[in-house]
Amino acid sequence: MNDSSWGAPPHAGSPAGYWGPTDRGPAQGAAPAGPAYDAPEAQQTRPMPVVPDVPAHGGNQDDDRGAARPGGPLFREGTFHGGTSPHQMFRDETPSAQPHAAVPQNPDPMPDAPQPAPAPQKKSAGRDLGAAIGVGVGLGVVIVASLFIVKAVFVGVIAVAVVVGLWELTSRLQERKGIKAPLVPLALGGAAMVVAGYVRGAEGAWVAMALTALAVLVWRMTEPPEGYLKDVTAGVFAAFYVPFLATFVALMLTADDGAQRVLTFLVLTVVSDTGAYAVGWRFGRHKLAPRISPGKTREGLLGAVSFAMVAGALCMQFLIDDGTWWQGLLLGLAVAASATLGDLGESMIKRDLGIKDMGTLLPGHGGIMDRLDSLLPTAPVVWLLLVLFVGSG
Q1: Comparing C-alpha atoms, which of 198, 314, 202 is closest to residue 259?
Q2: pTM of the model
Q3: For residue range 332-350, what is the model confidence (pLDDT) as tens digits?
Q4: Which pLDDT tens digit goes with each residue over 381-393?
Q5: Which of 28, 102, 206, 256, by CA, is between 20 and 30 Å from 148?
Q6: By CB neighbour count within 10 A (0-12 exposed, 13-18 middle, 19+ buried), where does 314 fall?
């Protein structure tokens, strides 16, 4: 092994690389000159164990790694020059160093400093609540004003909401699934369905529904036959899901206390959704339907039922002619169930389409269909129960 791999660093107090009178290195049994001895004195002095100097920074690579090699201070690399073994230089010395494997590398590690606990994250609604509340209040003012001033204006509001909802639904179907449900016959037939329900009752609504479905079948014939079945199936589904269910709101409006019935329907649905959100956000722990809507919880459902039943008892007692509080309890329970199923139903559609919202028309809410999801299936439930409790009057 050459000198460059075992060469010792220069010692303080002696010329760099100097080992005595010659350059051959120390004789057998002679100690190298240390910092307390110059070269002539070192030749007349009996061998003494030498504590090696700490190599200066910037030495060769072997010196920099000497602290990690086996052996004590007498047997480090870089201590002996010219390949002389430690046993040749110090035969009387007994090595006290332990094998490398027996020397603990870090016998008493310092304990890690305690890390501060992460700050708990606040729950988020996932939407702009300020915009959502503002838009909701604005819509409520328009609906209530049209409802109690001129009933025909409110029918127009329903028709506009139906047309916009159909546009959102058919647009998402075409974008995500390539399904081309014909919008023109759906929009015209949907608006006609709502008006026919208000003017001619349930019979007029059914006739308009049948004519709308027929118009969808015929309209789609003007295009190539590829995809005809899925397009018309989606069209008939859209006609039933949006305008036909909305027609039951117009049917409620035809009663003498129609404005109060529609207001009860709207209040109970909104209160149910609000109760589900408030209780679920604060106490929700157990998922209701994680594969469909991960945000909904069983605690939220209980909140929806509780809020809706209380609101139903108050509305039936003070708003509906001949209504009683116990009827309101049943009505509130039914509304909570139908509103939750309606919300889950549209969530299922959006999951299949791979989207979060049906549209972006309403800031903080999404699209019109994202507000109609719980209202549409609740309308026939409220209409039927009110007819059973107090008649169609």
Answers
A1: 198
A2: 0.67
A3: 999 999 999 999 999 999 9
A4: 999 999 999 998 7
A5: 206
A6: middle
